[in-house]
């Protein structure tokens, strides 16, 4: 294909635009990391931009010595891992039958799911339901009520609709049941969609905050994001002899930035392992054969 002058200008424009957008997303993170690694004097003087000034790991040492950070980290990992598994299991097992024309009442169920996408229940009825189910002050309150996202369900169903029906019919002729077809045929072909849904669900669980504030009062079950909020907005750090000594040498802003980095890095580490499938999954439902 011969590149015309218009195509070259368009490509240059896209390159510049995407570069500016990329920098606008990366530079704030770099600034946060630089502040978390800078000393008290440099931060208070406003000398920190995109490179640490007066390099120190004191903020991270203070955070890692706070036991409540580890409690919140443990709870967030449990919520993210098990919550994502529940999400993928429930979304897949509902999206698959809704994508098959031979199943009855699928249109009625789709309308009910669409209703929940447009209208959501208020906070008080949700709270009363969680209380009646005995899930207050448990991690289940942060996983089971959000077991299925209506939007992700429609995306997954759209992917299943693109699977060749001849493949599924031949499996049935070979004696495969529906669960075996789903496990051995449909799911292996759905890795891009599963990876995309998994990342979306995992990020949602890792950043879960409002529900934890409403449903959990016991300190041993709060997720990391709630603990992060306490540090960022109220400067509440764990009390110990070592931390009290460090607090006199560190800037509160540096501690806050370090907490943000600690809370962000774990979920960022998941993306490289799923990048290949995630890029493919972003095209789910966009092309219909």
Automatic annotation (TrEMBL):
Membrane-spanning intervals of the chain: 12-34, 77-97, 109-128, 140-160, 181-203, 254-274
Organism classification: Bacteria, Bacillati, Bacillota, Bacilli, Bacillales
The name this protein goes by in its record: L-arabinose transport system permease protein AraQ
Annotated family: Belongs to the binding-protein-dependent transport system permease family.
Domain ABC transmembrane type-1, chain residue ranges per copy: 73-268
Localization, UniProt: Cell membrane
Pfam families in alphabetical order: BPD_transp_1 (PF00528)
Entry superkingdom: Bacteria
Annotated keywords: Cell membrane, Membrane, Transmembrane, Transmembrane helix, Transport
SUPFAM superfamilies: MetI-like (SSF161098)
Membrane topology of this protein: Multi-pass membrane protein
